[in-house]
Amino acid sequence: MKAKVSIIVPVYNVERFLEETIASVRGQEEQDWELILVDDCSTDAGAAVIEKYAAVDKRIRLVRQEKNEGAAAARNRGLEEASGRYIAFLDADDIWDSRRLSAELSYMEERKAGFVFCGYEFADERGIGTGKVVKVPHTLHYRQALKNTTIFTSTVLFDTEKIPKELLIMPSVKSEDTAAWWNILRHGYAACGLDENLVRYRRSAGTLSADKVEAVRRIWNLYRNVEGLSLPYSLYNFVFYAVRAVLRRV
Fold this sequence. Notes:
Layout: E1 5-11, H1 15-26, E2 33-39, H2 46-54, E3 60-64, H3 71-81, E4 86-89, E5 95-96, H4 100-111, E6 115-123, E7 129-134, E8 139-140, H5 142-147, E9 157-159, H6 176-186, E10 191-202, H7 212-226, H8 231-249
Parallel strand pairs: 1-2, 1-4, 2-3, 6-10
Antiparallel strand pairs: 4-9, 5-10, 6-7, 6-9, 8-10
């Protein structure tokens, strides 16, 4: 039977987080979903954890990549496998509130939107919230999003009857998720923000997001080489990005 929501999770050496992340999906108020976990040639026992849950819950599927290609390719493989009308992305170390799907589906219907996202809370390596909650704007259009990179991957939901599935394909660049959101918005769609804290964003030591210098390089590359913005317009947007990025973390 076709699922209402296809949840796509790229998996690479995150065995220690998988049980909690999968449990947060199974605990959703909205139960009409399929969970597609794409293993990107992990060297730990993460695949065995997934197989254990897939054996008792047929909504859970393990998909194996033939070679390690990174998160973007893993998410794109998940898109190929997805059967649901709605697409949600979840990073393998993040945790959803039980209302994450039901609240966003209701909000999507209320706003007649094809792209929604929500607020989130930073969490420590144990998944415990730090109390720092990121609020999100009511609506983001392309030019606004260039200055405000607050759309977080584990919070997004798409209606493929309103936004073509091919627009959800992520490019092979660093910060591929942000590049994908900008591409969707550049095509004339709006992102509607639900200002509720429904996700815990685990910030683990050693993750890409923990490297601030690398984050700056990635966003600058998006401005200049992916979006093709002029130097002055890139600098203009970068100032807003930097200020908001600092405020989200203090």
